[in-house]
Amino acid sequence: MTSSEDMARLYARLTQPDLRRLTYVVQVGLDHGLQVGLNQVARLGGELALIDLASTAYHDRELDAATWRRRIVGAIAPGQSIEAQVERAVYLGLPAVMLPLSKKTTTAQLAAIASLIERGPAHAWLLVPWSEAGWSLYDDARWFFAHHSRVHVALDATKRPPSKGVVERWCAEPVELVVASKAWPAFERLFRSFGERVLLTDPEQRNDLDEAYRAAWAGVSAQHHHAAAFANAPIIPVEPLGDDIPSATYEVIESDPVKYRAYHEAALAVLRDRPDDTHVVVAGAGRGGLVDQVLRAAQFLNRRIRLVLLEKNPGARATLHARNEREWRNAAKVVDADMRSWVPDAPIDVLVSELLGGFGDNELSPECLRPIERHLAGDGVSIPRAYTSYVAPLHAESLAMAVAEPEKLYTITLDRACLLAPPQPVFHFTHPGEEPLDQHAAVAFQIEADGVAHGLGAFFDMELADGVRLSIVPQDATPGMRSWSPMYLPFAQPFGIREASTLRVELFRRSRTRRAWYEWVVTAPHRGRLHNANGRVSAMRA
User: Fold this and answer.
1) Which of 133, 298, 366, 420 has the largest CB neighbor count within 10 A?
2) Best CA proximity match to 274, nearest among 293, 296, 298, 292
3) Cβ atoms 95, 73 nearer than 8 A
4) Mean pLDDT on 80-108
5) Cα dihedral across residues 389, 394, 400, 406: positive or negative
6) What gap in Å lies between CA 180 and CA 190, rounded to an integer?
7) 96-119 residue pLDDT tens
8) How far apart are CA 465 and CA 13, in angstroms?
9) Residues 6 or more apart in contact with residue 59 via CB below 8 angstroms
């Protein structure tokens, strides 16, 4: 699927009614037979039935094969032969089995689970408490299973919540089930990440849990709904320079009032001291979102401006022509041109653009703006005038499982990731400016909690004009803004890392005539491989 199709499907989800709800797994008592137990599951609104694999109170003829495959999860009893229970799960064709992990779990027992998942297609749910000790149990097991994509977590949240940091780390793990006794306040964070499948130990708490789930999403900003729509599906970022993006993608881009309010403020700041007939060029005008803000600012200041709109996408350009005639009263001149080769008939006073991606320069804003900046007047300015890219180490097992090619750059959400250290700046560009297109950065991170380094989270901030900034860097992200999502640079071989240790990474930005790319490498605590050397896997078309 193309990134544009991904964005279109994302928009379709955003415009549908919010149908999120908890789904329940019900532990079935077998005293009155398996079918009676399943009827009980249906009455309780359950999705799956959890049954004892060691029990002799049922046999396979009680249900049809489709029901075994779709609705039954087997609970393994550690005190009995796990090998025999695994064989029974394979015979029944169960979709998943659940094994409680403890310090007493043996290598032979884990090997039986490894046999199950290698034979497929069943998944293994490792039941652990949500404490720090429970995370350590799971962390040890994940290495035994070599981060297998069908090994997941069943999180026992029946005891008091752990610290916020531990909860955040669980949000980065492949949790398939939450075992709950009540609605803890910490569930608000879990529900926004993965907590839609619950085994409730006290049915009388169901209403409270449903209410807690609704409360977690009620009034949530569109930013969170935007992120949740592809929380477990990293997507290849859009390449506006190489692709003509479709109308549905523009609609997503234009649905962010926070960003456009900032562009309006920047246009006011820049035009306030400019005379009439200021020459304004919107480079990459799309369907006119930025144009609206420039014209609003000029009208507010009672300024006449000479406005030129550059757009190479024929579909968007047709929209600009129509809007110019019907809405803007022919206040602009629409030009079919690539901004890198276009020559204006007069120096440009104000250059406005929106060419940034989640990693800042990954949509090749520097490559696009450097050529047209040569036509700026002596006191000409650019909106934005500067931006900086940042990276931070991520613990993100769920994301790593979903990534097919570990040397590509992906658009993600942090709902299923945990930062192991605060972000640090790596690349910086100003406009107009003279920074080289090729850049190199070496950064060191002090790790704040035990975890697995799965890759780097990538962010940016930008200065549009004096006092007007936008950011997706976690510690100072602009509230409510959803135009950009973070990005992810995976490590081909994730590795464990301990609190207070140092992680060193080097990044390279390479730019050539027809393409640009990033390279990244871990240099401490060990020297790793260079990812994406010479853009062999992932490169942006220039």
Assistant:
1) 420
2) 298
3) yes
4) 95
5) positive
6) 12
7) 999 999 999 999 999 999 999 999
8) 34
9) none
